[in-house]
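Quick start: what a row looks like.
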Amino acid sequence: MTPFKDNGHLTARQRRFNSKVASVRSVVERSIRLLKGRWRKLMYLEHMDMELLVNLIMCACVLHNFCLLNDDFDDGYFLDDDDDGDGGIDDGHGAGGPGAPAAAQAKRVQLMNIVC
């Protein structure tokens, strides 16, 4: 999900939506970094079958939650910012302009109406 492009003419609802998208994205990125720190295999999944990839990620989440329920957690699971191996995530600031597909813009407005 990409935020609205801020060219100085955003409405208050659009700015609030961008803020909420940034907040949720931050939580998701920290969660992925934590999972990759605990289950190092998740850093090397780019050449796998999509169905197997989804199953591995779900299993890692289930195992992580099981470990949390049994008080098995260590701060050493957190990766440094340069260790997450995601290859750089596009921040989406260029999307949402006049060249963006109409369906994507409509979906973003629909989500904004739900969230804000």
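That is the whole record. The longest helix spans residues 12-38. The helical segments are 12-38, 50-69, 102-115.
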